[in-house]
Design a protein that fits this description.
By secondary structure, this protein is α/β, with parallel strands linked by helices. It has 14 helices and 10 strands. Helices cover about 55% and strands about 10% of the residues. The strands form 2 sheets. It has a 5-stranded parallel beta sheet, sandwiched between helices. Strands 7-6-8-9-10 form a 5-stranded parallel beta sheet, with helices on both faces. α12 (about 325-335) links the parallel β8 (about 315-320) and β9 (about 345-350). The longest helix has about 30 residues, at about 150-180.
């Protein structure tokens, strides 16, 4: 019998993986920390390890290094589950010896099962049932032998349970956000950011396994932002905290409006970036690429105005301080075009001007982000506006 070791600190998620694989005839053990997972590995002798990269204390990357350093397990397949926005972490996992990297935000239990089968092969049979590939007993579901539900029924149950938990999840997130906004102490604030990061990490994984990919993707982007703020406390400022608050509010919107099955495709978008500073413009374009959002960047406001008159953009980023025509003036001209009455426009401004400008008129803009910005902060901003625009555009 093939043995699968799961190292996952989210017990709900770990149990779902475990139950799915056990039903399919695999012998499964699980651990919630890297240290306990390594200890269990030595006695359990797994055929494959399913590993979450974001673990408390000993990280998933360190776990892989330990696995590869022991001759008995140097060649055991290690399939990792991570956040696609954490590209550096994924690269570290590959370097450490990961066999395959999967996105938690897009993996269903069926996907996990298929990866296990393709990695170590199917089992000889399901406990208490016929061999794999045999015809099901009369009256039984063909998807899974015995009295278990079909994949579709199982997925539907997961989705319903997840949706039922969303109001309590939102209450917890908003309570954490309020505590964060009231805390002046830097040490306490870092602890609160870490706790919020762990909650969003769990939310992203559970949304992905419930096939609610809009919530999963938004949560994954926010998770990456919170992780960066925790690791780089100097990046905590009015702009980044405002982005975190907006993202939590938007998750509440998705909980109410983004759970329909036919809404789960991540939308494409056409984005315009107008910024006369080449480095800043390239940084915005790069941050958008992290969310797989293609964009067109120009350095001249007049050229930007020409482009919007000839094309239809879903989102526009404007630098505030530009020669000849500043971002506010350009936005005012864009708003006069009927097709751009409601298109989201985000201003990019210096951090030193952020507070005064966010409290003043926005000349028709929807939001601000401060330079120098974190790539992932801008990714979060863009994802919020693109998803909201697509959901708002859907017929009721």
């Amino acid at each position: 019998m093939k043995k699968i070791l799961i190292i996952e600190d989210d017990q709900i998620l770990g149990n779902i993986y475990r139950n799915k694989l056990t039903v399919e005839g695999y012998q499964v053990e699980s651990a919630t920390t890297g240290e306990s997972g390594l200890a269990l590995m030595r006695t359990f002798q797994p055929s494959m390890i399913l590993l979450d990269l974001l673990l408390p204390q000993l990280s998933g990357v360190d776990v892989i290094k330990h696995i590869r350093s022991e001759s008995d397990f140097a060649k055991v397949p290690v399939v990792v589950l991570s956040n696609t926005y954490l590209t550096n972490l994924i690269q570290d996992a590959w370097k450490a010896g990961a066999t395959k990297c999967l996105s938690k935000a897009t993996c269903s239990p069926k996907d996990i099962l298929e990866v296990v089968r393709s990695t170590v092969g199917p089992n000889e049979g399901v406990p208490g049932g016929p061999p794999v590939g045999a015809a099901p007993a009369a009256g039984k579901s063909p998807a899974i032998a015995g009295d278990t539900k079909s994949d579709a029924e199982f997925q539907d149950d997961l989705r319903k349970s997840f949706i039922e938990s969303l109001p309590a999840t939102l209450t917890t997130l908003r309570s954490g956000l309020q505590a964060l906004s009231r805390t002046p102490d830097e040490v306490t604030r870092l602890k609160q950011i870490y706790e919020m990061h762990r909650r969003i990490h769990a939310l992203a994984g559970n949304a992905g396994i419930a096939s609610l990919f809009l919530i999963a993707q938004m949560s994954a982007a926010l998770e990456a932002l919170l992780k960066e703020l925790y690791e780089k406390p100097k990046s905590i400022n009015a702009s980044t905290l405002r982005t975190v608050a907006a993202a939590v509010d938007f998750l509440g919107y998705l909980f109410q409006n983004g759970t329909a099955i036919d809404q789960q495709q991540i939308p494409s978008a056409n984005i315009l970036v107008v910024d006369d500073e080449a480095i800043s413009r390239r940084a915005i374009v790069y941050a958008l690429e992290k969310a797989q959002l293609p964009s067109t960047g120009v350095d001249n406001p007049a050229e930007g105005l020409k482009l919007v008159s000839e094309n239809l953009f879903d989102l526009i980023f404007l630098d505030v301080d530009m020669p000849e025509m500043n971002g506010f003036e350009l936005c005012a001209k864009i708003r006069k075009m009927p097709q751009y009455k409601k298109t989201p426009v985000l201003f990019v401004t210096a951090l030193s001007d952020f507070e005064s400008r966010t409290s003043s008129t926005m000349a028709g803009g929807n939001d601000f982000i401060a330079k120098p910005f974190l790539f992932i902060e801008l990714t979060v901003k863009a994802l919020m506006h693109v998803l909201r625009g697509k959901l708002t555009a859907k017929p009721s």
